Structure formats: structure tokens, C-alpha cells
Amino acid sequence: MGELHRFMFEGLPVRGQLVHLGASWREMLARRGDKPYAPPVRQLLGQMAAAGVLMQSNIKFEGTLLLQVYGDGPVKLAVAEVRDDLSFRATATVAGDVPSAAGLEALLNLHGRGRCSITLDPNGRRPGQQPYQGVVPLHGDRREPLQQLSQVLEHYMLQSEQLDTRLVLAADDQMAAGLLIQRLPAEGPGRVSGERNEDQIGRNEDFNRIAHLAATLTREELLTLDADTVLRRLFWEERLQRYETRQPRFACSCARERVRNMLRGLGADEVRGIIAERGEVEVGCEFCGQQYRFDAVDVGELFTPPRDQPHTRAPLQ
Predict the structure, then answer these.
(1) End-to-end Cα, the chain, rounded Å
(2) Euclidean distance between CA atoms 240 and 26, whole angstroms
(3) How far is the C-alpha of 66 from the C-alpha of 75, rounded, in Å?
(4) CA 104, CA 147: separation in Å to the nearest integer?
(5) CATH 3.30.565.10 fits 2-250, yes or no
(6) What is the arithmetic mean of pLDDT over 129-150?
(7) Is-contact 77 92, C-beta < 8 A?
(8) Burial grade of 35 (CB within 10 A; 0-12, 13-18, 19 or more)
(9) Residue 82 to residues 85, 136, 162, 231, 249: CA-CA distances in angstroms?
(10) Domain extents in the chain
């Protein structure tokens, strides 16, 4: 399991969240078995998982948040999916060699074509209803490449919500973690009449001070210190209102029935062709490593209308 800590700065228009994905993150990595991702890819996925949990909890969205980065480097696509119960999973599609010290630009944005998308898919989506999606490039307003995933997501939230945000993300093979600090919409007597929320961007001294403190958090501190120690070291002069701790966890939503439906979509001729060539159809989940196998009898049942299927399977001779 992991831990998500939510807090407010008393008397200030600033909120924060701190997440540590320990055992749940290690479980996800272990599902790769003898096919581990290269270290820079593992670090990217860990940061994405931590960021996805922070963003899902921050917006209190009833549905699934899908964070994706894709581009023209060796990592063609990286995905982190977080549901509203804070269960998460992540995967990456890699083609080619990954340099041992590759950063975001070398992984995804070699020629400036990298993109980051956030998709919000509501629970119980009606037929024809489209999920919300926002897309930003992996560069800033001045076209300079962004070197950290945290910078990309700060840029995204500034554009989509018009709220100043500071993110600190880190991951290794033992822990994926993140700290989010965000300015709240301006309200009350201190707000200038007619002033829009976006007019506050960069101008709130309380947020700027707290964001500066958050930026001093080192990678080692974020990955190794417990939440109480981190918050005390960073914000010892501030009054924090803490909320109930939540427990993010790794969980995959794959299922045999979903794979059956996928095979039906391929069509009887193609699936039977695989059976003829290989003797069985094997489908592996890219998120959790679960293997689903279908033999000739399974495939026969798959493409036989229910009314024509026997009530029992005859014993093998």
C-alpha cells in the first residue's frame, strides 16, 4: 500500500498533498518479471504514478484519470492510470535502446514532438459522451524543452486551471513519491473587484513563499523520509491542517472476459489462424503481466453462439 497525505495551510489560500508509493510501487515493478524496464523508464513511470495519484485526489474526480506522455524518442508511450479509489497501474512502450542517464527530452522529445495528455473518463459514461482530454507539448511557452515531468504538469495545470502549482517528483526501485503545492482560487475581501483568477498567477506572496520552500526538498529526502518529517522540515513555521490519510494501491483492471471481447473483435478467421500456427492464443496484460491463454476449445466456444454450445464439454479421448 501507499500513503497520501492532504493538508491546508491555515489562513492561506494554499493546499498541498504528499504521496509515497512504497510496497504498491514495488509490487508493480515485480510484475514485469524477467523483463524489467530500463532504469530511466522505471523512474519516469514512478513519477507518473505518483503525479497521477496527486492529480486524481486533487480534483476529486469520480472516474479514471489517464496520464500519458508520448513522442519521438525510444519511449513511444508511457501511461499511468489512476481510478477514483486511488488504485493505479502504469506501463510503457519502448522501442530501441534507452541511454542509462536519459532524461525526459532523450526519452520522449528528441525532435520536439513530445506531448503530454490528461484524460478524465467519468464513471458511468453515457453512450456518445466523450471523456475530457487536455494536451500540452513537452516544452514551455518560449519553446524551450522542459527537462522534468514536474515542469510539464505544472505547465498543464497552469493552462487548464489557471492555478499556480509546484510539483516535486522522484522515483527509484523502492519508492515513487511526490509533493504537490497549489494556490487556491482567490476569494474574500482581499480580492480586487472584477479581477479574474488568472490575474492572480504568480502574484500571491504566500504561495510563492511556500512553493519556494517546497522546491528545496531534495530527491533523497522525498524518497527516504516519512511524511511527518518532510512536512516538519519544510513548513515548520506554518500551521497545517491535516486530513485523513488515504492509501493508494496498485491494482489492474484486466480480466479474462475483456480479453475474450478483444479476441472477438479480431474476428474468427484471424484468431483461428493463430491457433493453427501456434496451438493456442496467448495475451499478456502490459500493465500487470498477467497471461491469458486460449486453446482451440476456448476459441471454438468464443465464436459459437450460446444456443449452439453444448451444456457440458465432452471428455477428452
Answers:
(1) 48
(2) 30
(3) 17
(4) 6
(5) no
(6) 81
(7) yes
(8) exposed
(9) 8, 19, 23, 25, 10
(10) 2-250, 256-308
194 pLDDT higher than 60: no
Per-residue pLDDT reduced to its tens digit, 45-82: 999 999 999 999 998 788 999 999 999 899 999 999 99
Cell digits for 71? 513522442
Out of 3.40.50.720, 3.90.1280.10, 3.10.310.10, 3.90.1300.10, the CATH code matching 256-308 is 3.90.1280.10
Query: pTM of the prediction?
Result: 0.82
